């Protein structure tokens, strides 16, 4: 089975549409789709992105921005621009999408797979896993980890192979092959606001038979996505960073 896994759309419909088109053109066809959260936040088109993700994904995981917008977490401590963006999104979002976000799970488990927005441990805290220190801390919870955990949140493509004796090591794409006897944390990157110095939209495909995950990138109209942000009440910084993938 092929599973299309993507994350952190962040209300960027101009990035999401080419990703969906690429998924639909994939050969062999993708069997099902999972979104790892943060459909909203930062970008200018939360309603359009919610509609597309709801139509595409069999499972959507709750992200921290999703939780904030629909009233499931307190974001008063966020920095001003992010907090203002969440207020803006909460006001712009149609009630049907508010209701949908309120139903999303923090974590989903399929056999040996786990889907989560941030760390699968203390999942409601949305903790980051983007360096070896954080990855090694997860080994302390070995029995709570599935064989392969797919996460988003950091907008990076950093992934880690874990072993209780050897510790954590970083693993690199574009294709990751999963070995028996180890556990993995795979950060799938971001569709709508990449931060790994590559401004193309990022998405991935997991092959359950080959036991591989492959990162894919697709170009999109960044100028158009940025224009919409500039013309909104959102911070211009959210538009500028799209050009640099930071």
From TrEMBL:
InterPro entries linked to this entry: Ap4A_hydrolase, Calcineurin-like_PHP, Metallo-depent_PP-like, Pesterase_MJ0912
Stored Pfam families: Metallophos
Annotated Calcineurin-like phosphoesterase domain residues: 1-170
CDD domains for this protein: MPP_superfamily (cd00838)
Gene3D superfamilies: 3.60.21.10
Organismal lineage: Bacteria, Deltaproteobacteria, Bradymonadales, Lujinxingiaceae, Lujinxingia
Protein name: Metallophosphoesterase
Origin species: Lujinxingia sediminis
């Amino acid at each position: 089975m092929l599973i299309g896994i993507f994350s952190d759309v962040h209300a960027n419909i101009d990035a999401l549409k080419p990703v969906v088109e690429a998924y639909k053109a994939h050969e062999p066809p993708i069997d099902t789709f999972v979104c790892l959260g943060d459909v909203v936040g930062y970008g200018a088109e939360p309603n359009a992105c919610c509609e597309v993700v709801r139509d595409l994904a069999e499972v959507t995981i709750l992200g921290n921005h999703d939780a904030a917008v629909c009233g499931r977490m307190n974001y008063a401590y966020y920095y001003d621009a992010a907090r203002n963006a969440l207020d803006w999104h909460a006001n712009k979002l149609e009630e049907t999408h508010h209701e949908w976000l309120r139903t999303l799970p923090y974590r989903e488990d399929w056999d040996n797979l786990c889907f989560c927005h941030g760390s699968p441990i203390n999942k409601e805290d949305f903790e980051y896993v983007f360096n070896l220190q954080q990855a090694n801390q997860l080994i302390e919870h070995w029995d709570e980890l599935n064989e392969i955990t797919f996460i988003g949140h950091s907008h990076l493509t950093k992934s880690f192979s874990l072993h209780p004796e050897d510790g954590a090591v970083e693993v690199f794409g574009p294709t990751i092959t999963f070995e028996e006897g180890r556990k993995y944390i795979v950060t799938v990157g971001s569709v709508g606001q990449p931060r790994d110095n590559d401004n193309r939209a990022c998405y991935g495909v997991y092959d359950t038979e080959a036991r591989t995950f492959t990162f894919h990138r697709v170009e999109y109209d960044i100028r158009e996505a940025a224009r919409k942000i500039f013309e909104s009440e959102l911070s211009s910084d959210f538009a500028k960073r799209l050009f640099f993938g930071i």
